Amino acid sequence: MNIAGKAPQDTGWDADQRAVIEADTDARLVVEAGPGTGKTAVACARLAHLINEEDIEASNTWMISFTRTAVAEIRARLHSYVGDASFAIRIATIDSHAWSIHSGHDPNARLTGSYEENITRVIELLKSDEDVADELAQIEHVVIDEAQDLVGQRADLIEALVNRLPSDCGVTVFADEAQAIYGFSDDSIGRRKGGASKPGMPLLDRLRGVKSLGFTTFVLKEIYRTSSPGLRKIFSELRSDVLDKQKHRDGLHGQTAERIRALADQQGLKWTQMKVADVDFR
């Protein structure tokens, strides 16, 4: 499946991908997307479909990602889908979006403040400032990428943003929870000074846990990145087991290593040169 460089409506999307891309403009979706399922392409095609087919104004859409590298890739792909309209889409990292709100609505905003102080102030603005509410009232759709990495104060920030958006503003959240399995899951994250964090509760759990927010879960299942049978099983069957908390137990790390060895094949892997830490479930 070659996605890059094609207009969304012309691409051979599978049924799951198309369901996400063509969902209602005001739909609120959590899209679980493992490695090789075309997550970034679908995220961009979702916005492109809304702009090209549903008359959503590009300037009224936001794309929030986790890293500047991802933002650059997204910007290039969106330009290939919607042309110069991509320049009107507000594509930025969560920290850049936060600073835009902070600097635009707080005359005392300063870059020299601590991260915690700045984010706390933005959350306050989101919850109570009417000028911020007026700005957000213009937003028609928000796409959030790499949401599994949003914990602590960043999760607080996105939670406050989603709560403040108009009820008819669509939100599409993309995540691969396996990517965060060895990362930001510690309960200590979010207990920083000045924060209003919910220790141990990542953003996805918060969004799914509040029925009034109206999120529905979609899953992208088909893997396109590799033809290796071993890698496909690692990125599907083994990944599912790693994500299943009921299967977490002592010795899981060693058992996972053994399963990687068993699934290795000459087309895609050399298990003798691999460590469990080398397997990126993205």
TrEMBL record:
The molecule here is called DNA 3'-5' helicase II
Alphabetical keyword list:
ATP-binding, Helicase, Hydrolase, Nucleotide-binding
Origin, by domain of life?
A: Bacteria
Q: Which residues bind ATP?
A: 33-40
* InterPro entries (UniProt xref): DNA_helicase_UvrD/REP, P-loop_NTPase, UvrD-like_ATP-bd
Domain UvrD-like helicase ATP-binding: residue ranges: 12-282
Keyword hit for NAD: no
Q: Does the keyword Aminoacyl-tRNA synthetase apply?
A: no
